[in-house]
Specification:
Tachylectin-2, Chain A, disordered N terminus, six-stranded antiparallel beta sheet, 316 residues, 23 strands, mainly beta
């Protein structure tokens, strides 16, 4: 997370460090327009807005959404304090959802959210879930029910990544390779950040090739997902005092990445004021027939001045 978001969270945070509690409250979804001024405005670049909601819950563990994955049951969201949330889409109707609980294990046994600074996740065969943790710059693997960990690793190539800018985006490709992107570790070329391509499961000791990723100028990557056609879609965010929050989505062709290459995407959409936008961090891809659907969620940093948004777009 960028420093400005941390400052906002510290200034207006709700109760922090709340210990896990049994059970899980429902998640409420209240509709929002893409453009609060114009209900007919549904286009943003190559995206068509299909609906969006502000998500809230009475459960103090809810918030901080940093990654989304799709499965047969809908969407699984992971928060940056280790919260696990289930969201069930219902087309144009408001989704339903509930708080599942906390990740059962992680890179530290210390009490507090820092030990569960989970910023990225991806699914694999059988529903296995990999989660990338900042602070420890580690990757943990969990079973499909997210009831236990099944392995973990702290790759040496990630050891010097900034503690608050580590594995921000991660995706397992259909062929079993893994891509992991740093938010803040500077690349060799100006405007680039370090990334890794693992030939297999990083938890099993696969050794990665290094490359640099160049996000749109002024932005950092926050999530990445594979599209049905083999390309990737990447989510980026920016915050400035003058312009506030904004986000850019890009299409990235990862067909071939020589070791040490510089990879850059093609922007396809930008979300910025006056459109509805916040600290956009999480991205999932689903299909409805032949339509490709992008789900984008924001991290509220457990702050009363930010919102947890879930937005649904068709990729044209």
């Amino acid at each position: 997370m960028r420093t400005i978001w941390l400052l906002l969270a510290m200034l207006a945070a709700d109760a922090a460090g709340t210990p896990p509690i049994p059970g899980g409250a429902p998640i409420r979804a209240d509709a929002v327009r893409l453009d609060p001024r114009d209900p007919a405005h549904v286009r943003a670049g190559s995206l068509t807005y299909l609906g969006g909601w502000v998500l809230t819950s009475s459960d103090p563990r809810f918030g901080g959404l940093s990654s989304l994955t799709a499965d047969a049951d809908g969407l699984l969201a992971i928060g940056d304090r280790g919260g696990v949330f289930r969201i069930t889409p219902r087309g144009r109707l408001a989704p339903t959802g509930h708080v599942v609980g906390q990740l059962p294990d992680g890179p530290s046994e210390q009490i507090g959210h820092a030990s569960r600074d989970s910023e990225s996740s991806t699914r694999g065969p059988g529903g296995a879930l990999w989660v990338g943790f900042e602070d420890a710059n580690a990757i943990w693997r969990y079973d499909a029910a997210v009831s236990r960990s099944t392995g973990h690793a702290a790759p040496a190539e990630m050891a010097d990544w900034p503690r608050n800018g580590g594995p921000e985006a991660m995706v397992r490709l259909p062929d079993g390779r893994f891509l992991v992107f740093s938010e803040e570790a500077k690349g060799a070329s100006p405007g680039t950040y370090r990334a890794l391509l693992f030939p297999g499961d990083p938890v099993e000791g696969a050794k990665p090739a290094r490359f640099d990723y160049r996000p749109p100028a002024g932005y950092v990557i926050t999530d990445v997902r594979a599209l049905p056609d083999g390309r990737l879609v990447a989510l980026h965010r920016r915050y400035t005092k003058l312009d506030g929050a904004s986000a850019i989505l890009s299409i990235v062709d990862m067909a071939s990445i020589p070791d040490g290459a510089v990879v850059e995407g093609r922007p396809i959409a930008r979300l910025a004021s006056p459109l509805t936008v916040d600290n956009m961090e999480a991205l999932a891809v689903t299909q409805e027939g032949r339509r490709v659907i992008l789900w984008i969620a924001s991290d509220d940093n457990f702050s009363s001045v930010q919102r947890t948004l879930l937005m649904r777009f068709r990729l044209d």
